[in-house]
Amino acid sequence: MRITVKCFASSREIVGQHELVIDVRVGATVADLRDVLFETYPRLIDLRLRFAVNAVYAAQEVELHAGDEVACIPPVGGG
Amino acid sequence: MRITVKCFASSREIVGQHELVIDVRVGATVADLRDVLFETYPRLIDLRLRFAVNAVYAAQEVELHAGDEVACIPPVGGG
Amino acid sequence: MGKGRYEITPDPLAVDPIVAQLADPAMGAVVTFVGVVRCETGGREVRYLEYEAYPEMAEQVLKQIADEVRGRWPEIRDVAIVHRVGRLEIGETAVVIALSAAHRGQLFDALHTAIDRVKEIAPIWKKEVWTDGEAWRSEQ
Amino acid sequence: MGKGRYEITPDPLAVDPIVAQLADPAMGAVVTFVGVVRCETGGREVRYLEYEAYPEMAEQVLKQIADEVRGRWPEIRDVAIVHRVGRLEIGETAVVIALSAAHRGQLFDALHTAIDRVKEIAPIWKKEVWTDGEAWRSEQ
Question: Strand ranges (DSSP E) for chain D?
Fold first, then answer.
């Protein structure tokens, strides 16, 4: 199933683009998607990334659904 | 010697004017001036007045000098 | 650093010009307190407020409050305290306090102290005019 | 009460319009936090900052922060949090937080918590561009 991945800040620079579409197996979790990303872009591993699913922070074990939007959230620095 | 007395807020309303000129004996203190004011305007007694001499809060025992400006300071309510 | 602004004015107050006045390149954070005329006080409906000050003394006292605050929290870069006088309608701003620093750190406690001290010692008086009477009011 | 405003914007920020938006007749006090771009960070000279956000999520998170703050301090009437994105020069405002209440009471602690939470959880990122390099920076 297809998942849209949005990348911001340092993760966007490493990936080279703001948005990716990634195919994962049905039942895949945030952790599974993370592993795909880490394999393709190993420099993401050092970023202490958190993830959001459909604009809400999500734990690694959250299950994904077709069409979900997952965001890579490097340490934030607002303010 | 002549002392200028400035009255504000409730004290101004009781005195009926913003500024008075009052004659006191040489060596008079804030307390002496206060007693003159209280005698002339007894309704000032209830106001919990503080006094300032030349725009600085002054204790009752501070000695006055000719030309000093004394202010009647009712409880303040800024902000 | 430390240009300051301590003023009693009959003119309407705005926050942005006061913040702008504190600006310096090393300033990273500003906090402000804005005191606004309310429609109600102690269960009474307010029509308007009348503020009066002893301006020459009040401006000195506002500067003294700023010095107290900067003495207690040395990381504060600058302070402005501006208080309006005259007749103020519901929703109008009576006082603006602004404190600047490199980092946010102690700005919050300092702001709290600054407004408390203004209410305690600045020679400024407030007459509340209600629908059914009026009185000079103090928090003291 | 509780109209709120939670916004990510590329436009310059001003405090007065945000304070005006919180206005209601029972509001007596507003406090604001204004975050400004500094010339220096950790001993390095800053040329400018570049802010980036995940706006759809950030606006939800800003609202969540406002809800947290109002839950903890029920006397808070209203909250606005507006954060700018894009390239910001020294002295420009990156964030404005405004809290209103009937009385000043707990506004100061609430303001402190609100800006701390924005820095902790809002999906907003800051790249510092120094005279000799650049990096994405976080307080975490």
Answer: 5-9, 29-36, 40-41, 44-53, 76-84, 86-89, 93-101, 124-130, 133-137
At residue D1, does pLDDT exceed 60?
Answer: no
| 8 Å CB contact of C15 and D23 | no
- State the Cα–Cα distance between residues C129 and C40, nearest whole angstrom: 10
Bridge partners of C92, per DSSP, are: none
pLDDT band at B2 (very low <50, low <70, confident <90, very high): very high
Convert the pLDDT of each residue in C26-62 to its tens digit. Answer: 999 999 999 999 999 988 999 999 999 999 999 999 9
For C5-131, CATH gives 3.90.1170.40
Whose CA is closest to C72, among C118, C121, C32, C113? C113
Give per-residue pLDDT as tens, A54-74.
Answer: 999 999 999 999 999 999 999
Q: Give the residue carrying structure tokens 């606005």.
A: D80
> Do the beta carbons of residue D28 and residue D103 sit within 8 Å?
yes
Nearest of B11, C130, C18 to residue D16 by alpha carbon? C18
Share of chain D above pLDDT 90, in %: 93
Instruction: Give me the residue from D30, D33, D109 closest to C34, CB to CB.
Output: D30
Search chain C and give the residue with CA nearest D109: C108
Residue pLDDT, tens place only, D78-95? 999 999 999 999 999 999
Give the separation between CA A13 and CA A43, rounded to whole angstroms. Answer: 10
Across chain B, mean pLDDT equals: 97
- C22 dihedral zone (left: phi>0; alpha: psi -120 to 50; beta): alpha
From chain D, pick out residues whose CB is under 8 angstroms from the CB of C14.
Answer: 16
- Domain residue limits, chain C: 5-131
Distance set, CA D23 to CA A18, A62, D16, D18, D78 (Å): 39, 42, 11, 9, 9
Question: In chain B, where are the structural domains located?
Answer: 2-73
Measured at the alpha carbon of residue C88, what is the angle toward residues C4 and D25, in degrees to the nearest 5? 105
Q: Which pLDDT belongs to residue A61?
A: 98
Superfamily of domain A2-73: Beta-grasp domain (3.10.20.30)
pTM for the whole structure: 0.95
pLDDT of C1 > 70? The answer is no
Query: What pLDDT was estimated at residue D2?
Result: 63
Does D111 score more than 70 pLDDT? Answer: yes
Contact across the interface for A74 and D53, Cβ inside 8 Å: no
Short-list C125, C73, C137, CA closest to C99: C73
Mind telling me how many Å the CA of B55 is from chain C's nearest CA? 5
